[in-house]
Amino acid sequence: MSKYMQSRFASLEAYVPGEQPQDKKYIKLNTNESPYPPSPGVLAAVNAGEAAKLRLYPDPECKVLTKKLAALLDVEPENVFITNGSDDSLNFAFMAFAGPETPAVFADITYGFYKVFAQLHGIPARVIPLKPDFTLDPADYYNAGGMVVIANPNAPTGLPRTRNELEEVIRRNPDHVVVVDEAYVDFGGESCIPLTKKYDNLLVVQTFSKSRCLAGGRLGFAVGHKDLIADLTKLKYSTNPYCINRLTLVAGEAAVDENEYYMDHCREIMDTRKATTDALRGLGFEVLPSAANFIFARPPKMSGEALYLALKDRGVLVRYFSAPRTCEYVRITIGTPAEMAVLVQAVREICG
Ligand code: PMP
Fold first, then answer.
1. Which one of 76, 198, 213, 296 counts the least CB within 10 Å of its CB?
2. Are residues 283 and 251 both part of a single domain?
């Protein structure tokens, strides 16, 4: 830390993204990207003509994409907020709806960025342990006394809660915003977006990075009551109004037009998830029943770290989390059937 860095950041522990090693070609099952390319319309939309327009600023209101997304999600454009990845939406939500007097309330095992956003903005975190079986008890979040953040399905477990269960959390926190992070909802979860018409304290966050094959484009969005969206927009315009670049905007617009392409691939990933889960269970693994594009799995006779290292040695990258409750497990992104066959074969060799 330089002598100029402000002391309030001395204890800030930055988020650590999944590794991207360059030493050889890996089968990458560690950052929950899609194994499939963006749809044909997206590839066509990101063309030389659009690149030539890069001398011009993008539309800060993202009007075309906002309208298309609103139509797809059956809400009004005033209910949609578009950002540079969903991390950006989450960051603005922490900034807007939590603070020194308003804690952020989230699970002990969930997306690791929540505690970073809390630290960054000087927000006290009220961390609620998941149950021993890794499920989240919605009743733990009734009258939570702060902004509630729930990833649904949760990460890295993949376990979902129903819309009805989360509605009760929203209903029982009338004085605080409830953020439902639906990064993985398209792989078998139940979206809370319909509830945004009924509750003015619900913000649903989604991303184009997973089910829409656009992690490298950096595109995310939030859906909620128009007043929440206006609050978030005020902060976006006070930070970087042009945070979504032109190429990503046209890519996102084309992706919404081709929604069926993406939903088909989500179904394929769910089929591959089932086959991989069955294969690993057959090898003695405990695999949590996932509703996401990854599985959380515990090998029979070794630690999560030992399996992670042995797989990396064989050219397959998975994610390992060293915290006490998660260190026995690895998180494996669902790739193509061919990639998962390589994974299962490697596991078979490693586990004897
Ligand atoms: N929420 C969850 C639960 C995630 O796992 C991720 C991916 N790391 C994100 C949000 C952020 O994804 P992105 O910024 O690429 O939209």
1. 198
2. no
